[in-house]
Amino acid sequence: MKKMLLLISLYFILQMGVIQAQEKIDEAALLLQLDRDFDKATDEKGVEGWVSYFAPNGSMVGDTSRPIIGPLDIRKTMEPLFEDSTFSLRWQPTKSAMLIPELLGYTIGRYVRLKIVAGKPMKWTGNYSTIWMKQPDGSWKIVFDTGNPDDPPKEVK
Question: Is the full-model pTM beyond 0.85?
Fold first, then answer.
């Protein structure tokens, strides 16, 4: 009887492990989708969409010589760009991976930035890297974002 009880207990323990393994989320794929959602939210909502994906301690390194840290500084830096009706920033992630499973991961990809400068439509292209961190509430937020242009901007003909 004890052996039967032990076997039944072992069976249920193994089944719980199988169920948990089946429920395990592919976090790298999740980050790819989050990055796509980030692009869409930014396209639709401008600076509000942009800022909403950053963690409270999130930072950016962009066209300035200093890091831009925290939502207020990020908003202050990005708002003038998004207020310009000729400005557009779109991107597509090409790869994601976990650095520390269930805590820290990254996405990389390509971006296109458009803006009219001195009456001429200009286009920047380049690579970007975004580091995502799982927050205490279980959501994923950006803790670091940066981009690197391919070349100087080109006039769009």
Answer: no
